[in-house]
Specification:
Blueprint: E1 14-19, H1 30-47, E2 49-56, E3 60-67, H2 72-93, H3 100-112, E4 130-131, H4 135-151, H5 166-169
Antiparallel strand pairs: 1-3, 1-4, 2-3
Helix pairs in contact: 1-2
């Protein structure tokens, strides 16, 4: 591939991953994944988040992101804070959630072990950002996150997975506005 990406400093892409506490498989229900999608779209429209690639798995999220406005760490902090509250509330209110009591107990237990929280902890605290400084790194991380649903056996081809950006890279239109690299 002979692409040569040109990014302004703040738009420079970072690969970031974050997972639920204890790697709990929360995102087996579309209702909870849709909260993440809506929040990412909000961050794009209102906070200047730039998304180059993304995927939501059952217990974690991978993103390749940059920013046009706010500091990336502030956007990620606010995203995680909002989504943790919204998803826990959705779990509480979902009468069809068979694992509700167990999940809420696990989130509450994790929160009590962490002095930074008041009631519960949904996300693990680390984000593991990796600056993607060249085309080889960008392509490698895009391939990695797009192949996650294939590796897990959710789909045969990555662009068939609804909760990721592979469809955008296959000339389709996904759930989130992606800036193709």
């Amino acid at each position: 591939m002979s692409r040569n990406y040109k990014f302004r400093d703040q738009e420079r892409p970072y690969f970031i991953s974050f997972a639920t506490v204890h790697w709990i498989d929360v995102f087996v229900r579309s209702q909870y994944k849709d909260i993440l999608v809506e929040s990412l779209n909000h961050c794009i429209q209102n906070k200047g988040l730039v998304i180059y690639g993304w995927v939501i798995m059952t217990s974690h999220v991978h993103l390749i992101i940059g920013t046009k406005q706010e500091k990336m760490q502030d956007i990620v902090r606010d995203f995680k804070k909002y989504t943790s509250k919204a998803i826990v509330q959705a779990i509480r209110e979902n009468p069809r959630e068979s694992r509700r009591e167990w999940m809420l107990w696990m989130f509450e237990r994790a929160g009590k072990k962490n002095g930074n929280n008041t009631n519960f902890q949904f996300w693990q605290q680390n984000n593991k950002p990796i600056e993607l400084s060249d085309t080889k790194m960008i392509d490698q991380k895009l391939n990695y996150l797009h192949n996650n649903p294939v590796e897990e056996g959710f789909v045969i081809e990555s662009h068939h997975y609804k909760y990721g950006s592979a469809i955008d890279y296959a000339d389709g239109k996904g759930l989130i506005e992606v800036l193709l690299v």
